[in-house]
Amino acid sequence: MLARSQRRCAGALATAVALTVGLGACAADDDVLRTPDGSVISTTVTRIAEVNIVNPGRDYAKTCLAPTAPDPGRADVARIVVTDPALLDALCALGMGAQVTGVTAPAGSVPAYLGPQLASVPALGDAPASAAVRTAAPQVVLTSPETRQRLDALRGTGALGTARIVTVDPASDWQAAFRAVAAGVNRTGAANARLDEFTTEAHRVGRVMDAPHSEVSLVRFTPDAEMIEGTGSFGAQIMATIGVARPAAQRTPEAVPATDADFTDADADLIYVSYEGPEGLERGKRVLLSDRWLDMGAPTWNRVLSVDDTVWYGTSGLAAAWLVLNDVKVSLNSSSAG
């Protein structure tokens, strides 16, 4: 086994290599790596502080599922405006991204994991112009309790016409929210079928991978703490559907900050870590290379892996659920060795 100082140096080197994106010489002065014609060269980060990233460079163009048909006897919905980007996951999972004609939110509000189709939907802003709403011409407006002001702004344009307003709370049970969105766009049958398909596959993966005999810890690095996650987070819920076991200290819903007294509660057969924003990432890098972390069992055996914080914690929905399932499928029996 490497001496602690050697391991720390190796980790620092790995981090430096993995996180150095776009350093080098090109005909621009912004330190971004470019081709001779000026195009940015994309570099995929695969490793952070000796920890491999699960599914690095994932192709988000494949997140959304195939289109679905409306319920028998119900009209299709061709044009949808959404006031809360959190509701887009359900439309992505129903294969209805092409029907979204506007998002009443600032530019850049659509989660990256939903892929380029939804990222390219016109952002109408918090206070959309009447002309933009007329161009979007929604038949259905999907909104949430938290975005009531955006709905009021839409109504204030006088351009909604006969659009039907459907209110769904994305913070409620994710399956209930998915069904509510589906009902609002006349796809109740498709929603039930897609949820059944997901549950069947999750149970199959759990059986094939013998998930109940693997205890998996979830640790989320925030700017202020190392959070030992419970069962209430979205990623934890999907792991429960798969049948993955959790350490005894992590079988209550709430996340708790790690302290000196309970730091080893983060240990398990495998630890999935994630980072809330850039400051969470910096904190995570420091902890992952610390002696008290490296002295635990999973880090000793290179059984620590990084997952996408937005997908596992920052959102919920069937499209995200498939991403979490695929993360577990490719990594439950993996390590960060090598």
End-to-end gap: 13 Å
Shape: elongated
Number of strands: 11
Name of the CATH first level of the largest domain: Alpha Beta
Strand content: 5-15%
Mean of pLDDT: 89
Reading the helices and strands in chain order gives HEEEHEHHEHEHHEEHEEHHHEHH
CATH superfamily caption of the largest domain: Nitrogenase molybdenum iron protein domain
Q: What's the gyration radius in Å?
A: 22 Å
Jot down its keywords.
Rossmann fold, seven-stranded mixed β-sheet, disordered N terminus, alpha/beta
Any overview of this molecule?
The chain is of the alpha/beta class. The protein is built from 13 helices and eleven strands. It has helices spanning 4-19, 88-93, 116-119, 130-136, 148-156, 174-184, 188-208, 234-242, 277-288, 291-294, 297-300, 309-312, 318-331; strands spanning 47-48, 51-53, 80-82, 100-103, 140-143, 164-167, 216-221, 226-228, 256-257, 270-275, 304-306. A seven-stranded mixed β-sheet has the order 1-2-11-10-7-8-9. The chain has a four-stranded parallel β-sheet with strand order 4-3-5-6, covered by helices on one side. Helix 7 packs parallel to helix 13 and helix 8 (234-242) crosses helix 13. It is elongated, with a radius of gyration of 22 Å. InterPro entries: ABC_transptr_periplasmic_BD, Bact_iron-sidero_bind. Residues 1-27 form the signal peptide.
